[in-house]
Amino acid sequence: MKAGMSELRSSRRVRANGGVRPAREYDPFVRGRFPVGVRTIQALDKVRNRLFPCEIWYPAAAQHAGQDIAIGTQDFFTLPSGDTPRSQMAVRNATAQSGTYPLIIFSHSSGRWHRRAATFLCTHLSSHGYVVAALDHSEVVAVELAPRDGETDEQKTARVEACIANRVPDIRFLLDHLLGSAAWDSETNLDSTQIGIVGHSFGGWTALAATAVEWRIRAVAALAPGGSSQPKPGILPAKLTFAWGRDVPTLYLVAENDTMTPLAGMYELFERTPATKQMVILRRADHVHFMDNVEQEHETVRTMPWTGKLAWIPKEMQPIEHLCSGEQAHLFVRGLTLCHMDAGLRRQEEAQRFLLGDMEAELAVRGVDVIAHKP
Predict the structure, then answer these.
(1) pLDDT tens-digit profile of 145-194?
(2) Do 211 and 220 form a contact (C-beta atoms < 8 A)?
(3) Residue-range domain boundaries for the chain
(4) Least trusted range by pLDDT, from 21-30, 113-122, 299-308
(5) How far apart are the C-alpha atoms of 296 and 294, rounded to whole Å?
(6) 3-class SS at 198?
């Protein structure tokens, strides 16, 4: 962490201290004008013989206005790793608002979190007129990729390599499936020329890796991504080529105190990215700040009985009360991710100007402390 902090100090820091408040004509931090619907579909990959549960968030018809933000009409679901129902700001099987919309793929991290790990972000994007889709990746649905009791080091290494190798094919399959004529029952059409991808952790690596082979991707948001050349012990050793062959606007949103993907690796990935790029660092934040239920999930991870190569994790994680709040983190992630997609996919001039402006001041007036990396 010392190396990361020394590099951190080399980034420019600007604080808002009584200056003129930034213009607010364009505000990506507030919820959009569309109510949000959500559906779950089952997508069969006949080539690999795998059935993928997929979540699709979409702009819903006006008749659902307010239902997505009211507890009584919101969708509730239970994660496979727990038995406590969670809500998301979307209406289950709501009538879709007819129209043609950009598509954003969300790729989840590894471990206990699946396709609904960041509903705070996916629903926010859909409220602004995006269709967002996420599947449970192969390591979740394929029995042969699940950990086995008593597996040898060689067997574990082979399994991990297979999990990594299946990630990009998962994304390509999902795109093919969604862009097919009968992917899901809806009045919503997808604009195949406006496709973005967002991923967190292993999903961040997936987003960056998929861009090298999937030319339909036009914008990338990588949230605390894996893929650095020197991962910490036990962290997936996934590599990146960055052989993109074109300019794909890329936004890195990373955490100052990230235990699992430290800042040194984020700087490395940023420097290697051969595209128009920006990186913004959320201060007093860790790896779990990019997910739903930040406070609860962070403390769950910090107090888990990690063993083997991952035994260092709880020793290095700070208690959540020493870090920024989940509310601050969610505002940071959803606002800047939306702005990046508006600028990169929709070519909205207001969003492009916002990204070129003083993002540190914009976040500061909203109570969020960030550093815009200026290499």
Answers:
(1) 988 888 898 999 999 999 999 999 999 999 999 998 666 666 789 999 99
(2) yes
(3) 2-15+32-372
(4) 21-30
(5) 6
(6) strand
CATH architecture of 2-15+32-372: 3-Layer(aba) Sandwich (3.40)
For the chain, give the longest Cα–Cα distance. 62
Token couple for 188 = 């919503």
Q: Which two tokens stand for residue 39?
A: 């559906």
For residue 258, give the DSSP letter.
Answer: -
- Is the distance from CB of 97 to CB of 62 less than 8 angstroms? yes
pLDDT the model gives residue 22:
44
State the Cα–Cα distance between residues 172 and 83, nearest whole angstrom: 32
What CA–CA distance (Å, rounded) separates 177 from 175?
A: 5
Classify strands 277-282 and 370-372 as parallel, antiparallel or unpaired. Answer: antiparallel
Per-residue buried b or exposed e for 224-244, using 16+ beta carbons within 10 Å of the residue's own CB: bbbbbeebbeebbebebebeb
What's the DSSP call for residue 231? Answer: P
The answer to whether the pTM exceeds 0.85 is: yes
Strand-strand pairing, 188-200 and 86-88: unpaired
DSSP assignment of 21-80: PPP-SS-TTS--SS-EEEEEEEEEETTTTEEEEEEEEEEBPGGGTTGGGSTTTSEEE--T
Q: Which amino acid is at 19?
A: G
Other residues' Cβ atoms within 10 Å of the Cβ of residue 295: 16
Q: How many residues are present in the chain?
A: 375
Structure tokens at 186: 């809806």
Closest CA to 236 of 260, 219, 257, 218: 260
d(CA 159, CA 148): 10
Distance separating alpha carbons of residues 114 and 125, to the nearest angstrom: 18
Integer distance in angstroms from the first to the last C-alpha of the chain?
Answer: 19
Radius of gyration of the chain (CA): 20
Torsion from C-alpha of 27, 32, 33, 38, nearest 10 degrees? 170
Q: Is the dihedral of CA 328, 4, 119, 318 positive or negative?
A: negative
